[in-house]
Amino acid sequence: MRRMSHSASALGRLGLTVVAALDALCYPLILVGASSAPHLTFAALRALVAGAVLAGVAIRLGRPIPREPRTWAYLALIGIGTISFGYLGMFRGAEFVSPGMATTITHVQPFIAALLAYPLLAERPTSHQVIGLMLGFVGVLVVAIPPWMGGRSSDFSLGFLYLVIAAIGVATGNVLTRKVAGNVDPIVATSAQCLFGFLPLSATAVVVEDPLAVVWSYSFVGSLLGLALVGTALARCLWFALLSRVPLHEGNAFTFLTPFIALGYGALFFGEDIETSTFLGLGVAALGILFVESDSARQRK
């Protein structure tokens, strides 16, 4: 991988922080629109709008289209992992778990991705980076365990299961994204994965839901456009571009920032309480980010 200059690495860190902030918007926006549409239909519409808009942008800008069948196969797998399984777990899990907590649980995915990255990418994190990822994972557990042990454990357990499915799908998609990043235009790649991911979601929605039951209110349209254009199109394009410049474990370490931001959104917009365990767990996760980033900075010197 090409070594980044000091200014370029600072710009990369800023970009990764922006991705975390955009990602954190997703669960609050899902909560706003969830009462107006069946869950899988909502998820499929999000993928379709994002993919279609990006396809139009790619055509308008004349972006290069991949020629190799293998590249298209990877983009299809990324779409199924990140979009189909990721959105299935995300939209269903948000029904049972608060927005801030849902984002926290889903972001065990950096730890899962680290386990997959070595055999699939030959990216072996150093001992400091492993410690950092483990600290991030422990921080997530500190936040997630108290409500699981509380009185709403049955709903929380079901939501947790859906969110783990989302985490596994996103982790797999991120590993494959790192594999093809740099070889495909980010706009084309993001459009393709959204449209590939839309197909299983829409097919499942037709079977198990009534897609015509959508209530096209202003709040639903606003949440759909926010999810599709900001939380998907913009965030995924930026993420795809960044993964062509940084190792997966370094990029994924910054996703541990998302729960900080998401819980702040939850407190600000939904009146969610922030418990002492939340500060403790997110502090541990922040320490994990510092471990990963400081070791990566030493390697760049």
From TrEMBL:
InterPro entries: AA-Vitamin_Transporters (IPR050638), EamA_dom (IPR000620), EmrE-like (IPR037185)
SUPFAM superfamilies: Multidrug resistance efflux transporter EmrE
Major place of residence: membrane
Keyword set, alphabetical order: Membrane, Transmembrane, Transmembrane helix
This protein's record includes keyword Aminoacyl-tRNA synthetase: no
Limits of the EamA domain: 18-144, 158-292
Membrane topology note: Multi-pass membrane protein
TM regions (residue ranges): 40-59, 71-90, 96-118, 130-150, 156-176, 188-208, 220-241, 253-270, 276-292
Keyword ATP-binding: no
Subcellular location: Membrane
Cellular component GO terms held in the UniProt record: membrane
Record-stated family: Belongs to the EamA transporter family.
Protein's name according to its UniProt entry: Permease of the drug/metabolite transporter (DMT) superfamily
Lineage of producing organism: Bacteria, Pseudomonadati, Pseudomonadota, Alphaproteobacteria, Hyphomicrobiales
